[in-house]
User: What shape does this take?
Amino acid sequence: MGTRMDPSFFGAGCGPGGGNSQLRRLEELRAIALRYQLEPYPENISDRVRDIPLGLMVMVVGEGNFGKSSLINSLAGREIAPVSIIPKTYKVDVYRESRDGSEYAVVRRVGEATGTQMSIAEAISMCEAEEARLSDAAQQGVDRESTIVEVIWNYCGLQFGPEICLIDTPGLAQFSISSDVEVKSLVKGLGTPYTIDEVWAHWYHRSDLVLWAFQADKMESRETRDTLQKLTRTFHKRIVPVATKADLIPRERWNEVVGRFRSIYEPILGQQIEQSLCLTISGGKGRSVCGTGIAELTSFLRRVATESAERKSEADEAFIQDAASSMEVLLTKSANQLLQNLRTIADTADEIALRAMAEVRRAVDRAIKQGHEYVQQRIPGLRSLLAALYRKFQAGRYSRAEAKSIAEREVLSLLDVPKLERILNDNLTRAGQAVTSMAEAICHSKQLGSVDVGAFGIPAKDSFRMKMQVPHVRVPDRISLPRLELPNPGCLLPVAGAAVSVALFYLSLTG
Assistant: This one.
């Protein structure tokens, strides 16, 4: 028996409006995965939820001061990326078209699970203050890293449109990446504490396209070549080269630059450079954003976005269906396991109850037998005691009340009623201990220690323990001496678990 998911949950999400449907279903899946700790689905689903609204994710990569910000401004048609930030800026900037018509930013600091939303002006002021702090530290010779690792900027009226998202990165000198590190370890969810290296690798892994900015007069940079070689061994990405600061070389040499670039980097990339080279002009505050080939590059990006939109939607749909099916299997398996354990527990409880009753019955029988033997051993003494007391009463040495009081006191002392109580309690205590050990042994043999609802052998946070706890059997009240009227003056009756009645003596006194 298991929980079945609504068939409509698997409905197609492609086409107009499909993204909203996919987001809704992904959020539902994430809630289920979080509730039952079905690792690694929460993190993987969160990545999908973040990616769907971003459209085509284009990562802008290059060494520090190689004109990446100028390229972004040229594609946006307005100055959105500051061009004067020092090379040691340790953060990733994500530029996207705002979906709700308002401009704002989300700033994420080192170690934070979620970012803080604020106005564009507040975010710029915060980043400038961070830059000033880093600059002062650098002038003092202090090695200090930025506490800001990621800012998502939401602007209105961007030239590249809502279907494209530009990701600006720190210069390549500001991060390290090793081809010896597995991709899985590099791609770390942003929901956990992380470093700028992890953020860079995280976005690079998720990007659909890479714009590689190299400075027109420094295209043979060894650092660029080394980094490209490492990245192409670790990740397989579609890379489009962009020559920045083209105004630093004569225009008549631009074709030479393009040819030289192809000869150097096509062997490294292992692919033919399909896009005509885009060249941008050196940027700076107050300078217009422009360049050669910007319109062509924008058209190229839009074409790629259109081509990839359907593929991404289909991939997202496949991910949703696969995740939903896998999670359903896991939850059904857990539900069946839970149901089976509940049945086992119910059967075990019945077995324990029956065996416990039998054990207590045996303990009571033992106590009665031991009490009877104990009283039988004291009957001769009782007979002598009562006979002597009766003779003294007949001789007039005791009144009726005195004789009755002495009889009760002496009989209780001779029988040692507390010892009779201990006999009963000791037997019941041992029975309780035996029942507890028996119950634990039964539970252990039936593997009723715990039931985990989770996946991949990882105990869930919601796991709960089902251990049978059997308390010791206790006798809470002291047992008092009963008073019984007996018809036969020659009989002394032993009362199991209590004492012997001396009603015979009372009857004789009333004689």
